[in-house]
Specification:
Blueprint (H helix, E strand, L loop, with lengths): L3 E6 L2 H9 L8 E3 L12 E2 L1 H4 L9 H7 L4 E3 L3 H16 L5 E5 L2 E5 L4 H4 L2 H16 L3 E6 L2 H10 L5 E3 L5 H6 L11 H10 L4 H5 L3 H8 L1 H10 L16 E12 L2 H20 L3 E12 L5 E7 L7 H15 L6 E12 L5 H4 L2 H19 L8 H8 L1
Parallel strand pairs: 2-4, 7-8
Antiparallel strand pairs: 1-6, 1-7, 2-3, 5-6, 9-12, 10-11, 10-12
Helix pairs in contact: 4-6, 11-12, 13-14
The chain binds a DNA duplex (18 and 18 nucleotides) through helix 3, helix 9, helix 12, strand 9 and strand 11.
Length: 391
DNA sequence: TCTGGGGTCCTAGGACCC
DNA sequence: TCTGGGGTCCTAGGACCC
């Protein structure tokens, strides 16, 4: 019998802030932006802040109205990632099979670890204690015979709880839940449930897989059929790798000036390209994203080329061409994004990356990358960005 | 109350090939 | 001389997750 823990940190970013700043403990902490930050949203609200109605994804200005006395913090991803590594190290002490889902949660396969840590519930309690002792943070745990049910169970126990679904009790556990608890059915699917009058998993359980597929499409239908029965989600069974890399920025005020927009595009291209250089991937596909202030309307464009990208300059030129093709002049740009689809580097064609014409440019870009890595504060970038900073 | 940033996966249509 | 069918790659858009 398989046995999994889903471990999910409680209000992770806010908890790290309260750990690092004892004066914030017991206070409503809101990570995501300062009260005056236009267009920022709440990333994490501490449980104290949730009592005021503050929630993730809520605009910061709204959070500031609900909780004027709150401690507002923009956030420090570097620090959260560092803390995340500490937590994951603790998990690794309980099983070699740890599957990290995001910065603050993971599945831990504890199948067959009874001799080392005792029965599953005891193991989960030990894990929670170890996380608290070694990192100063609390974690909620769900325990079940498969990852999907463990994931839902951990959500039932927040904060700092433990919820165990007994083996064989998976379907009964799911059937008692409202459709809102189905992980993988978001706002749109919830609306579709509501239109049809479905409120609990039991309402969905009465349908065959074919009927669900007819209502929701083959893929979602098959997923829902399994989910309400407490069966493993197939997406958890396939190992997934990195397929793309991107950066995007929402501007406090819409941009209208084309030079400024293109300068921002260059900044995004630099970010992505230098991150790309630090991986073992190459890219032949670039993409952009434009969101207009008017109507919150978003459109994208992408293009695939025969040969992999060689230089930042080349990446930027390709993004710029796409942008000029898509952009509707005169419209205010709210958000701009740039990215690249990744593929394994082809060693046979490696030589082409270093062809004559690109070699000088590549060396220059590589040294900029190295200097930036060594002296982050130096921020050595191309002239175009320096111009941007002065404006 | 206007709605972040970084990702993955799915769908649907068109091009192209056999 | 009326236009099959399956596989694969590409593009655009959307749903969903934390």
């Amino acid at each position: 019998m398989k046995c999994f823990i889903h471990a999910d940190m409680d209000a992770f970013y806010a908890s790290v802030e309260q750990l690092d700043h004892p004066e914030y403990r017991g206070k409503p902490v809101i990570v995501g932006g300062l009260p005056g930050d236009r267009r920022s949203v709440v990333s994490t609200a501490s449980y104290e802040a949730r009592r005021y109605g503050v929630r993730s994804a809520m605009p910061i200005v709204q959070a500031a109205r609900l909780c004027p006395g709150g401690v507002f913090i923009r956030g420090n991803m570097e620090r959260y990632r560092e803390k995340s590594r500490e937590v994951m190290d603790v998990f690794a002490g309980f099983s070699p099979e740890v599957r990290q889902l995001s910065v603050d949660e993971a599945f831990i396969d504890i199948t067959g670890t009874e001799k080392l840590f005792g029965p599953p519930e005891e193991t989960a309690r030990k894990l929670k204690r170890r996380v608290r002792e070694e990192t100063g943070l609390t974690v909620s745990a769900g325990l079940a015979s498969n990852k999907y049910v463990a994931k839902i169970a951990s959500g039932m126990s927040k904060p700092d709880g433990l919820f165990a679904v007994p083996p064989g009790g998976e379907a009964a556990f799911m059937l008692g839940l409202p459709v809102g608890k189905i992980w993988g059915a978001g706002a749109k699917t919830q609306e579709a449930f509501a239109r049809r009058g479905y409120t609990t998993c039991a309402d969905l359980h009465q349908f065959s897989e074919d009927v669900l597929a007819g209502m929701f499409g083959d893929s979602l239908g098959a997923f829902l059929y399994r989910a309400v029965r407490g069966e493993e989600a197939e997406t958890f069974e396939t190992e997934r790798g990195t397929h793309s890399m991107s950066a995007e920025r929402t501007f406090p005020f819409d941009l209208y000036d084309e030079f400024e927009i293109e300068t921002q595009l260059f900044a995004l291209a630099s970010e992505v390209f230098f991150r790309l250089l630090q991986t073992s991937f190459q890219s032949r596909t670039v993409f952009i994203k434009i969101r207009y202030g008017e109507g919150f309307y978003t459109e994208g464009g992408q293009e695939t080329f025969r040969d992999p990208l060689g230089t930042l300059n080349e990446f930027y030129e390709k993004l710029l061409a796409l942008f000029r093709k898509k952009y509707r002049p005169g419209k205010g740009v709210r958000l701009l994004g740039a990215g690249a689809a990744l593929e394994a580097r082809n060693p046979a064609r490696q030589g082409e990356l270093f062809d004559e014409s690109n070699e000088k440019q590549r060396r220059l870009e590589q040294s900029i990358l190295e200097i930036n890595a060594q002296f982050p504060q130096a921020a050595l970038r191309r002239g175009r960005l320096i111009t941007l900073r002065r404006r």
